[in-house]
Amino acid sequence: MSRPATSAFQALDRATSRHLLHRPPVHPPRTPLASRRPHPAPTPASPTSTGFTRHGKPRPFSIHRPYSTAAGSVQSEAHDAHNRQPKHDHEHEESPWEQNLRPSTKACWKCDASIPYLSVHCERDDCGVIQRAPEEEANYFEVLEAGLDKDGSTPTFDLDLKTLRNKFLRVQQRVHPDSYSQKSEREHTYAETQSSFVNKAYHTLRNPLARAQYMLQLRGEHVGEAESLEDPELLMEVLEAREELEEAGGEEEVDKLKRKNDARIADTITALSRAFAADDIAEAKALTVRLQYWENIRRAAVEWAPGKRIELTH
Ligand SMILES: [Zn+2]
């Protein structure tokens, strides 16, 4: 997120040359986060077939829904049949965000007590030690208890930044490494990793572009920095915006261009919010790529200075 202005346009240059050469970008297939995690096999003993979700709610359908967005959605015949059912059943479906199955509890590393999986500290009064950071097994929404829907399982793009900040400060205070300087080395290390994990979570979720990229990542979609624009009209608009900025005669003109670009950013964020609300992941991905370009233009406008050239060399 803190790339210099020189690289801000490298992606654009690469995208432009790709576009002119009519050569589609080649992305290595990416394994969705979920499939890299331990995943219980759908045996009769697994949580997916017990008739209960991992939140303990009764599972209305016993259909196993394998989501693998990176390699295209794998859908069973049963699921296709399910899709033909009346729309009002939708609210009972298991959310695709729930694909990251993990145990609901873990054992405290010190006293072995069974505690909720995301507990930062052991819940036993006579223990209370800090736990290892969940890293890959938890998503940022859960860790900060923010931006989740009323069921507490579906990440939402529209999160309240003030609530997010309050949650972050509260958790951060509890894991601050300074409070663990007198503790064992293990506890101090856990405090450090917890602290940096929470920081990363907060800084990812507070920024709309990073949040969108992260939400797509949770669904197995990777949006790279050098992602090309498929829409020729949009590509022209981006090139034009860059040219205007390069040819700007002074700060006043740059301010005007920046405001124009801020409006594009706001529009894209509104559209992203709608796409995520409708669970239209393909549209959300296209809009995220678009937002990346407008963010590059914004950064170049912010870094503009009289006499300072916008370097376009690689
Ligand atoms: Zn304990």
TrEMBL record:
Residues 1-99 are annotated as: Disordered. The lineage of its organism: Eukaryota, Fungi, Fungi incertae sedis, Mucoromycota, Mucoromycotina. This is J domain-containing protein. Residues 139-218 form the J domain. Keywords: Chaperone. GO terms for cellular component: mitochondrion. InterPro entries: DnaJ_domain (IPR001623), HscB (IPR004640), HscB_C_sf (IPR036386), HscB_oligo_C (IPR009073), J_dom_sf (IPR036869). It comes from Jimgerdemannia flammicorona. The keyword Chaperone applies. GO terms for molecular function: ATPase activator activity; protein-folding chaperone binding. One of its GO terms (biological process) is protein complex oligomerization. Residues 77-95 have a biased composition (Basic and acidic residues). Belongs to the HscB family.
